[in-house]
Specification:
Layout: E1 21-24, E2 29-34, H1 40-56, H2 65-70, E3 74-81, E4 87-94, H3 105-108, H4 115-125, E5 130-138, H5 142-152, H6 155-163, E6 167-173, H7 174-180, E7 186-187, E8 203-209, H8 213-216, H9 219-232, H10 238-249
Parallel strand pairs: 5-6
Antiparallel strand pairs: 1-2, 2-3, 3-4, 4-5, 6-8, 7-8
């Protein structure tokens, strides 16, 4: 995976005047995208659900209690709320990163031979903007969790658009990332998996590129993304971004 040569991006932060929401018929949830400081109660519910879910699977060491309590490293987060009003899944966008050390991937590959390659892959993309999707979880209901996972897989696309950056990344067990391929993510095949948070898991790295994801994404995921982007509303680069990705999707 090679980073294209672009004009270096400046530092951007999301300026959501309100927290956009919409009904997602696939997961039968209301989807909300917000900043932690704008929706503190909703953020608390999301964090509580993440802690319970990770604890249940014995991987709570993958969570950072301090940053989850404050939300200080999170630009925006997304949750699914069921018909009963309960948060049943979500994830957050950590960043945009100002240095390689901001990425949690450095912790995950610590002591591994591929650490230098991980650092370089992130460093090469920093000038163009990098956000990291973290703390993803879904409820135990098989049908709803499957549909909500597909919905959450589109959130890196919204994060790139709202934050006006080129790259989004995620690290997770390989079987989880396979579900996220549908939204145009590309596995970093040259980075060997790391046994994180413990030897039961083979954690891999995935990247989304705002200029190329449409060539890799499933048609259904693309159409849903465009519909959601219209609901969220315009941002400084939305028109050009959508025009580019629609063109790529039609190739």
């Amino acid at each position: 995976m090679t980073a294209p040569q672009l004009d270096a991006a400046g530092n951007h932060c999301v300026t959501l005047d309100e927290s956009p929401s919409w009904w997602d018929p696939d997961s039968e949830c209301t989807i909300v995208v917000a900043r932690p400081d704008a929706e503190r109660e909703l953020w608390t519910e999301y964090v509580r659900g993440a802690q319970s879910n990770y604890r249940k699977h014995g991987v709570q060491r993958a969570l950072d209690p301090k940053t989850l309590r404050t939300g200080e490293d999170t630009a925006l987060f997304c949750v699914g709320i069921n018909s009963a009003g309960d948060v049943v899944g979500g994830l957050r966008a950590k960043g945009p990163h100002q240095s390689v050390e901001d990425s949690h991937a450095i912790v995950e590959w610590s002591g591994q031979p591929a650490l230098d390659s991980v650092r370089k892959m992130i460093a090469d993309r920093l000038p163009f903007g990098v956000v990291e999707m973290k703390t993803a979880w879904v409820c135990d209901d098989p049908e709803q969790s499957r549909a909500l996972t597909d919905t959450l897989a589109r959130m890196p696309l919204h994060a790139m658009t709202l934050l006006d950056i080129q790259f989004a990344m995620a690290t997770a067990a390989a079987y989880v990332l396979k579900r996220w391929l549908s939204s145009g993510g590309v596995l970093a095949s040259k980075i060997p998996a790391t046994p994180y948070p413990d030897e039961r898991y083979q954690t891999k790295m995935m990247w989304w590129d705002s200029r190329t994801f449409a060539t890799h994404a499933d048609a259904g995921q693309l159409s849903r993304y465009f519909a959601e982007a219209q609901r969220i509303g315009p941002n400084p680069r939305a028109a050009g971004f959508d025009a580019h990705t629609r063109t790529a999707a039609g190739r």
